Amino acid sequence: MSKPDRRPAHEHAPHLLTAAATLTGTCLAAAGIFRIEQQQRGSEIWADNLAALSGLLYLVATVLAYISVRDQRSDLHRVTEALFWVASVVLAVLLLGLALETIVV
User: Fold this and answer.
1) Structural contact between residues 16 and 63, judged by C-beta atoms closer than 8 angstroms
2) What residues have CB less than 8 Å from 45, skipping those under 6 apart?
3) Is 21 in contact with 76 (CB distance < 8 Å)?
4) Where does residue 102 rank: exposed (0-12), middle (13-18), buried (19+ CB within 10 A)?
5) Contacts for 78 with CB less than 8 Å, ≥ 6 apart
6) Other residues' Cβ atoms within 10 Å of the Cβ of residue 94
7) Backbone phi, psi, residue 78, to 5°
8) pLDDT given for residue 100 in this prediction
9) How confident is the model over 5-47, as pLDDT tens digits?
10) pLDDT tens by residue, 84-102
11) Domain boundary assignment for the chain
12) Strand ranges inside 66-105, DSSP E
């Protein structure tokens, strides 16, 4: 029985690059929409800050993934993966909070 083909960890960087770049734009667009909604309501909405934080973390992950793609010897791919997961957790908390707020209100 043969073992599965294991690729070097830095080969995941292009996939993280595209996903992080896409999620950066999505989070920043969501933060802008939440900000507009906040101004129209005249009340504070916490979601815009979390969306902006998540977008910022995805932006840093995008830059690190790009550097990891360019320099394959670098160990930045581990930091990129960790930062991507932290940003994903922040985004999940945001979405869970919005879902709970919708159900409760």
Assistant:
1) no
2) 34, 37, 38
3) no
4) exposed
5) 9
6) 22
7) -70, -45
8) 87
9) 565 655 778 888 999 999 999 999 999 998 998 888 887 778 8
10) 999 999 999 999 988 888 7
11) 13-104
12) none
Q: Do 40 and 16 touch, CB atoms closer than 8 A?
A: no
Cα 28 from Cα 22, distance rounded (Å)? 10
CB count in 10 Å sphere of residue 21: 17
Q: Is 89 helix (H, G, I), strand (E, B) or coil?
A: helix
Cα–Cα distance for residue pair 84/104, rounded to 1 Å: 30
Contact 84, 20 (CB under 8 A): yes
Instruction: Give φ, ψ of 7 to 5 degrees.
Output: -95, 155
Task: Report in angstroms the alpha-carbon separations of 9 from 17, 18, 70.
Answer: 14, 16, 14
| Amino acid letter, residue 59 | L
